[in-house]
Amino acid sequence: MLTLSPIVLLLAAGQATRWREEQPDTHKLTADLADSSVFTLTLKHVQAAGLPIGLCVSSHTPASIMEIARREDIPHHICSGGMGDVISQAVATWQSPAGWLVLPADMPCVAPATIREVARQLRIGKADCVAPTHGGLRGHPVAFSVQCQASLLALRGDAGARSVLDSHLLRTMECDDAGILLDIDTPADRDRAEDFLQHHPR
Question: Which residue ranges traverse the bilayer (predicted)?
């Protein structure tokens, strides 16, 4: 499938291992957060950014998330393996001459405006990759141009796309959105996200 805009690859294929160590009967993406859930909020913010979405799922993805994808008519692809494998399979599924933004689905605090700005910086075309930073720390979503396609397709294992950033021209974008650094791996992370969203409405 071809798209003329950068596509957000929303990664919801992980096993949530650290979360399950503390709450084995639940999944972090379905955890309650700000009168919603972790996944629903992440999806809401991506949808508000106005970019096309490709949802990456796996056999570990809760059925309720699959139901949301069907209800919202969100294209999804069943992936397998580690994060590198998932990104590779997603790029192969959603070809985009305008590039891709990679965003883990456990990051519900990223503002829609930040997602749009990362996409805009990618379209400017002064670098192969764009990564937002806050206080000098790199966060998500990370954007990749079509110049990175071969490297993204070659990804394997759990390492993600760090090697692609290291081997291509990277432009960082400092922003005032601390939500780019807040991923949810544990119940304590969820509590921190709840406090953040109370003080920083998206």
Answer: none
Helices (H), 94-161: 112-124, 149-153
The sign of the dihedral angle between the CA atoms of 33, 37, 42, 45 is negative
Element (H, E) at 38: helix 38-49
C-alpha distances (whole Å) from 175 to each of 10, 135, 140, 194, 196 are 21, 8, 11, 21, 16
For 125-156, the pLDDT digits (tens) are 889 999 999 999 999 999 999 999 999 999 99
Give the CATH superfamily of 7-199: Spore Coat Polysaccharide Biosynthesis Protein SpsA; Chain A (3.90.550.10)
Burial 83-94 (b: 16+ CB within 10 A, else e): bbbbbbbbbebb
The domain limits of the chain are 7-199
